[in-house]
Amino acid sequence: MSERMEKVMSQIRGYRELCALVEARRLEKYDVENVTHEKSKVTAGIQALSNNFYSRWKFAEKADRVVRDNTYYCEKISASMSERMEKVMSQIRGYRELCALVEARRLEKYDVENVTHEKRLLRLWDILMPEEKLTGRVTKQWQKIGFQVKCFSIIWMRFFFFLFLLEAMILCYFLTVFLKIFYFLSSFILFKKFSFQ
């Protein structure tokens, strides 16, 4: 009888342990789901706040609100947390403004009558071919730098793939920067080469 009683008691203990493990797992899973749900609410709130920022002077107020609303998620709250949040929000806004500016430039189409477009073309020529002066706006000289025809009103779609102005600006910038770096490095290398011999 005692063997049977021990067997039944061990089965009951095993069942209890199994129930305790299952309950612990269920609570863990519930806690994890609850935390992830709450975190997604927080990130959604931050996203909504960053979308609704319309003026720079309200960054501090909005960052304080985000920190106040979500303080129970952090065990330790530093005094500079709202300042950091303000910096982050201003950077997010800055990047969004930059993306909007780049997109607006990308959608701008080349126009022959626009003076700034023509100036950018001439600047591109001056950077790529500084030793040769351009004789006219519509010449075969443009073929030396890769254009197929004389007139840009015909080729701007084919050559720059609707990104003419943006790419011309970027190309001009990088060419000027890299030419300066190249000249500096070449003079540095020549100086070292001749100074050690």
Walkthrough of the structure:
By secondary structure, the chain is mainly α. It has two domains: 2-106; 109-196, no CATH class. 74% of the residues lie in helices and 0% in strands. The chain has six helices and no strands. The protein has helices at residues 2-52, 59-69, 81-107, 115-128, 152-160, 164-196. The chain is elongated, with a radius of gyration of 33 Å. The N and C termini lie far apart (104 Å). The model is unreliable at 157-163 (pLDDT under 50). This is ELMO domain-containing protein. GO terms for molecular function: GTPase activator activity. It comes from Ascaris lumbricoides.
- Could you spell the SSE succession in H and E letters? HHHHHH
Number of strands: 0
Intertermini distance = 104 Å
Strand % is under 5%
Sheet bearing the most strands, described? none
Form type: elongated
Rg value = 33 Å
Count of alpha/pi helices: 6
